[in-house]
Amino acid sequence: MSDETNPFESLQEQIDDAAAHLDVDDGVIERLKNPERVLETNLTVELDDGSLETVRAYRSQFNGDRGPYKGGIRYHPGVTRDEVKALSGWMVYKCATVDIPYGGGKGGISIDPTQYSEAELERITRAFATELRPLIGEDRDIPAPDVNTGQREMNWIKDTYETLENTTAPGVITGKAIDSGGSAGRVEATGRSTMLAAREVFDWIGEQVEGASVAVQGYGNAGWIAADLLDDVGATVVAVSDSGGGIHDPRGLDPVDVKEHKNETGSVVGYGDAEELTNEELLTLDVDLLVPAALENAIDAELAEAVQAEVVVEAANGPLTPGADDVLAERDVWVVPDILANAGGVTVSYFEWVQNRQRFSWTEERVNEELERVITDAFDGLVDAYETHDLRNLRTAAYVVAVQRVIDAAEQAGTWP
Ligand code: NAD
Predict the structure, then answer these.
(1) Where does this protein hold NAD(+) (predicted)?
(2) Distance from C-alpha of 106 to C-alpha of 95, rounded to nearest angstrom
(3) Handedness of CA 113, 114, 115, 119 (dihedral sign)
């Protein structure tokens, strides 16, 4: 795995790449490449043994031209200011790609959550929510889950915010448990859009996802649900991995069984009689579809030369370095970019927020139907931009569509003061 590429520089390159196809002022592009504001703060919390520890936390509000800032909160030792800035920018262009009325934000705490008890994590989360209170709000900035956070953390943040504000504001955060104002279908949404994106791209290139062999890197929320739903539509998941390593069975793995094994043992490794393989071996396996669903920079230019999949659908944010993108474009490997493929998460977060504002719950069937419409319409929009502008890949197409939408909103608002 290459960790030398700065994800924020990758984001800026992606925007420049799109801007080359648009009629836009350099001054505007400079603004679209940088966050509006970044909170960097220290959280001092008491550990269970009575000692104090200080951890670093961030929230980047990248752009609010199309609506309130929106984006997840990540707990990982690799969280840095630049990573959070990049992730917040990707949120802006993701929301614009699927045309939902949000800007982009992202937050993170630089910790390894496995090193803390649940009570310690609750104190860290509530300390962060207290720092975030002046920045977030139902119409201002709406966090959500990301790597190593989920319903539990979202519920703590909602409760802290509502207690401090003395109000009821379920729309201040999404990805909540159903009883705390969450939406049906939110847990599955990122994996579902990954599956829908795979179906659309195979269809577009005149092939079928049914019967395709699939390798999935990362077996968390995005990866395991994508594997399960791809299996449901008739693909064969032959390899999966997590931070502990990978497993491979050319006859096909049962995604639900593998998940149960991971829940019991902490890793996919050791499942049944599947052979073990490294993450690098998984990424270069001879499969029809590769789904990177772990972290940024999983595939660099060198590894991209060895990728054998015909199609890559990015469930993770930023799994390909710009160098890898170039190599795969040259090698005619189809890549569905993260800002479309994993946009199901933020799309159903948007549906959750709409339901919170309406004080009315939708059925899971309605959520999934609306999600399918959003993803398939957005995919058609990418293909249209790709063909109209004769672009080098679908990522540039997505940025051309998304950057233009942000520019349009900014122009309509005007420059003030
Ligand atoms: P998660 O914490 O649920 O899962 C992450 C998985 O990646 C775990 O299985 C972990 O073991 C694995 N992993 C970590 N390092 C790895 C490595 N080096 N090799 C192989 N596997 C590794 O996180 P998630 O929510 O599934 O997020 C995964 C990616 O999807 C991230 O890039 C995230 O930003 C993106 N994403 C998530 C959502 C969402 O709704 N959860 C939405 C959009 C995008």
Answers:
(1) 190, 221
(2) 13
(3) positive
Is the beta carbon of 334 within 6 A of some atom in ligand 1? no
Q: Under 8 Å CB-to-CB from 90, ≥6 apart: which residues?
A: 11, 104, 106, 317, 318, 338, 339
Same structural domain, 203 and 327: yes
pLDDT band at 22 (very low <50, low <70, confident <90, very high): very high
Q: Quick check: CB of 193 below 6 Å from ligand 1?
A: no
What positions carry a catalytic annotation?
106
User: Domain total for the chain?
Assistant: 2
Q: Does the predicted TM-score (pTM) go above 0.70?
A: yes
What is the mean pLDDT of the segment spanning 279-284?
A: 97
Tell me the pLDDT tens digit for each residue of 244-279: 999 999 999 999 999 999 999 999 999 999 999 999
Supply the Cα-derived Rg of the chain in whole angstroms.
20
CB contact at 8 A, 237 and 214: yes
Strand partners, 313: 336
Q: Side chain identity at 398, as an amino acid letter?
A: A
Cα 292 to ligand 1 centroid, rounded to whole Å = 9
Largest CA distance in the chain: 66
Q: Indicate the residue among 150, 180, 210 that finishes a domain.
A: 180
Same domain, 136 and 213: no
* Mutation choice for ligand 1 from 112, 147, 314, CB with most ligand atoms inside 8 A: 147
Nearest to 334 by CA among 380, 290, 286, 298: 290
Instruction: Output the 3-class SS for 43-91.
Output: EEEECCCCCEEEEEEEEEEEECCCCCEEEEEEECCCCCHHHHHHHHHHH
How many residues are given for the chain? 417
By residue range, what is the domain housing residue 139? 25-180
Question: Taking residues 314-321, what's their average pLDDT?
Answer: 96
From the CA of 246, give the closest atom in ligand 1.
20
How confident is the model over 90-121, as pLDDT tens digits? 999 999 999 999 999 999 999 999 999 999 99
State whether the beta carbon of 348 lies less than 6 angstroms from ligand 1.
no
